[in-house]
Design a protein that fits this description.
Elements lengths: L7 H12 L3 E5 L3 E5 L7 E4 L1 H7 L7 H21 L7 H4 L3 E7 L10 E5 L2 E8 L4 E3 L2 H7 L3 H15 L3 E7 L2 E7 L22 E4 L5 E6 L5 H18 L8 E5 L2 E10 L5 E5 L1 H10 L2 E8 L6 H13 L8 H13 L6 E6 L2 E7 L3 H12 L4 E5 L4 E3 L5 E7 L4 E5 L1 H10 L7 E7 L2 E8 L2 E8 L5 E6 L2 H13 L11 E2 L12 H10 L7 H15 L17 H8 L22
Helix pairs in contact: 1-3, 12-13, 14-15, 15-16
């Protein structure tokens, strides 16, 4: 037996190899060269992964682990010698092709076929046999006469068909994360994290510090910061200690794309520093914003003030009373699918529930909670804005409000609120739609409402003006209900695409529209006010540098009186005759 080197690992590997009839010689690249008893070889066994695996083992256990490692390697050598795989024939190897992720640093300068994935990692194709995996080289790819795209598509299909990772959930400081394992190509599955239940509202954090395990956290709320730090520490430490290292960084999976979330560094005292990228730090900042919705039995509250009082009682005086069936059903659905929007039931008892979620997109969260509650007779209070959404008597339509809110339904009470609030310059629109080109909408400018409806195309686009919100409310609600009275309640005019709309509408045009739908809702006093207002609207101001003369001024209170000058109930004019003008409907 030759003189053994001073490195105990190489000494023990040499002893194990010689015990199986192989001669062994250390190389300069942390490996050994083996020659078989039949004179076959040489074979090269790298020791870096074995050395990492032994770092955490007591020295007295080294001989057994080393002997097992060497026996496994030489079993593959013997298999390759007696039944070699012909890698020159593509039809022979195509079933052995798999994908893995690899460190872009450790394979720099090596001739292999790879795809860039994200900073620090690339995707490679390997020929995976029972005990070994050999990376495909550019020379092999050229010999097989297929392109790189075909190669990766085939290898990915083989990997996904052969392996399904097992999931084990852990919890640390309220940050849940999953360990995905069970394949020699586990890292490759990071590309398909969407196949696993680890994706939250904003995607998932994950680390692939070494081959064999993927650690993932669904991003749904502010605990993403805790998860990022935790996963960063795992990545930094295991990258330096585990076999087959890939990357010490934390990555961000979202919508099938992988990006860098944080980098890690270990200082001389072995403390791990985790620094998020600017993009992920912006997400963490936005997740610090908390949205709360109080969900209450609709028949238990009549106003937003009632709902706010109930919300305060639930938060300050919790009780152990049982939740009603509708809330039980809602919470069960959130438990099943809440990750899609990130809801958490923070409070729940007989009075209702408080749902909490995170993120800057309040409109998205509002739409989601309204979808969850609309058919359960549960009202929703948006705690921050004070809006109450009572679904009783609702009709399912798409509703968009100028401040960015979207609703899945409309009720008469909500419509009344939206129409009156349309005078707010920051909330100028209300659109109610059945389809993209089938809708009715209104907006308000200088106390004049514009109502438009579209019936499938630009040629079926009509408009009318009015100063009375009751007319707007009745026309829109009749449209929503499918009541044909909306089509004859006002004097619809076909919209000229070049028309500037309400901002440039003349007083005469507004007067004609108003008189056409006057009905019992416009009193003589209101007509006088209307005449005054429209005269002012049509009188040009000589110069922008001069203030209007006093006789052109009009008190906004007069406009408010005009807008509210109606009988208590304003009804569409269902008996109106069909107009003769073909441009009217």
């Amino acid at each position: 037996m030759a003189d053994l080197p001073s490195d105990p690992l190489i000494s023990l590997v040499t002893m194990a190899a010689e015990h199986m009839g192989y001669s062994c010689r250390a190389t300069e690249s942390d490996g050994v060269q083996l020659v078989g008893p039949r004179g076959d070889g040489p074979y090269f066994l790298r020791l870096d992964n074995l050395r990492r695996r032994l770092n955490e083992k007591p020295f007295d256990q080294w001989p057994a682990h080393i002997a097992d490692h060497v026996e496994t390697f030489l079993a593959q050598v013997d298999l390759d010698y007696t039944d070699p795989l012909d890698t020159d024939e593509f039809t022979t190897v195509r079933g052995f092709l798999k994908t893995r992720f690899a460190s872009s640093d450790t394979i720099a300068g090596i001739d292999i076929v790879g795809h860039y994935v994200a900073p620090g990692i690339i995707q490679v194709v390997v020929i995976e046999q029972l005990l070994t995996a050999e990376a495909v080289t550019s020379g092999q790819l050229a010999h097989w006469q297929i392109d790189t795209t075909e190669l990766f598509e085939l290898a990915e299909a083989n990997t996904r068909a052969a392996d399904r990772l097992a999931i084990e959930w852990r919890n640390y400081n309220d940050a849940h994360f999953a360990i995905l394992s069970g394949s020699n190509s586990a890292s490759a599955h990071s590309k398909w994290l969407g196949d696993y239940p680890v994706i939250g509202t904003y995607g998932a954090l994950f680390v692939i510090s070494h081959e064999g395990n993927v650690y993932a956290h669904p991003i749904v709320g502010p605990n993403a910061l805790t998860a990022m730090i935790l996963l960063g520490k795992v990545a930094a430490n295991t990258y330096r200690s585990e076999p087959q290292p890939i990357s010490p960084a934390v990555y961000w999976w979202r919508d099938g794309e992988i990006g860098l979330a944080a980098i890690t560094e270990i200082d001389p005292d072995r403390n791990v520093e985790v620094r998020p990228t600017p993009e992920f730090e912006a997400l963490l900042t936005s997740l610090a914003v908390t949205c709360e919705f109080a969900v209450l039995p609709a028949d238990a509250v009549d106003t937003a003030l009632d709902a706010m009082e109930q919300y305060r009682h639930m938060c300050t005086a919790p009780d152990d009373s049982a939740t009603p069936p509708a809330l039980d059903d809602l919470i069960a659905e959130i438990d099943r699918n809440g990750g899609a929007v990130g809801f958490v039931a923070a409070v729940a008892d007989s009075r209702g529930a408080v749902l909490r979620t995170w993120g800057p997109n309040r409109g998205r969260h509002l739409l989601a909670v309204l979808e969850l509650t609309k058919d359960r007779d549960l009202a929703v209070l948006d705690v921050e804005t004070g809006h109450l959404y009572d679904p009783r008597g609702h009709i399912d339509v798409r509703v968009s409000v100028g401040d960015g809110r979207s609703l899945p339904y409309l009720t008469p009470a909500l419509l009344e609120d939206f129409v009156v609030a349309a005078a707010d310059p920051d909330d100028p629109f209300l659109v109610v739609a059945r389809a993209d080109e089938t809708y009715i909408r209104t907006r308000r400018y200088e106390w004049v409402y514009e109502i438009e409806h579209r019936a499938g195309s630009a040629s079926e686009h009509f408009r009318v003006y009015t100063l009375r919100h009751k007319v707007v409310r009745d026309v829109i609600w009749a449209w929503v209900c499918g009541d044909p009275s909306w089509s004859v309640a006002v004097h619809w005019r076909r919209v000229d695409p070049t028309s500037p709309g309400i901002e440039a509408a003349s007083g005469l045009e507004i007067l004609q529209d108003e008189l056409s739908c006057a009905g019992p809702g416009l009193t003589p006093d209101a007509l006088a006010l209307l005449d005054t207002f429209l005269a002012v609207r049509d009188t040009p101001i000589p110069s922008m540098d001069r203030t209007p003369p006093d006789d052109l001024a009009i008190d906004p209170a007069i406009l408010r009186d005009l807008a509210s000058s109606h009988t208590e109930e304003a009804h569409p004019i269902a008996e109106a005759e069909t107009p003769d003008d073909p441009d009217e409907t």
